Amino acid sequence: xxxxxLATLDAVAAEGTFGKAADRLGYxxxxxxxxxxxxxxTVGGAVFDRPGGPKPVRLTPLGEVLLxxxxxxxxxxxxxxxxxxxxxxGEGRVxxxxxxxxxxxxxxxxxxxxxxxxxxxxxxxxxxxxxxxxADGLDLVFFDGRxxxxxxxxxxxxxxxxxxRRGQFPDGPVPLRALHGAAMVAQPPICDQARVERVYADxxxxxxxVFRTADNRGVISMVRAxxxxxxxxxxxxxxxxxxxxHELEPAxxxxxxxxxxxxxxxxxxxxxxxxxxxxxxxxxx
Length: 285
What we know:
The chain is α/β, with parallel strands linked by helices. It is built from eight helices and 14 strands. The strands form five sheets. The chain has a five-stranded mixed beta sheet with strand order 4-3-5-14-6, covered by helices on one side. Helix 6 links the parallel strand 9 (183-186) and strand 10 (208-212).
């Protein structure tokens, strides 16, 4: 069955005549007659009783059954068309893998703008600390490093700094060798933290790790408490007046933050807009 034929059936039933149905649909009366005839041929019976003269046509029992189900199909088709148009306009659902720094600093701006532009957008965030994420099952994923077997764009370079209690070191850069044997609070040795600790080892520097936590605020809190110093990327910091930050000499290579998605996959307009807004937000940082 052609949905146009069902729409014609609905119009004739509502208007009572082929002529009025033609006006409603923007067809000629002969076109309406042809579509009704084609529908009757498809279902194998008459859908209207035609009394002739000025009297309106009436649905046959077969026509009543067909119209009841036909209206459901027309409603579903209209809902599908509406959903497709909203999807093209940027609504729908987007699933994003993230981690603490991105969640706290970049994504609030991105999510706020998306929901301003598309209040009906369905945004789902999934935060997990993992050594190597996968883009499978997600539309987009943030990671502090390149993601294997994925398409990706580099969002920003995030430099590392030394975080200490105020006055613990003189103002200005601190030699990397000053960290040898120093009490240090650190994140778990996964993701880019593992690379940082290899840099220490290559330089012959061996800090004394007294506490590890994946919670950025936990690291800062223990530095504030005097437990040790920390080396952290700037994006992870929320440093208050009682703490100081110092550049290291030689400087550590910054961590690289990427936004990735499954290779050879067509992105939705909503996911594409998230990428655009992420680039803008990172550039402003």
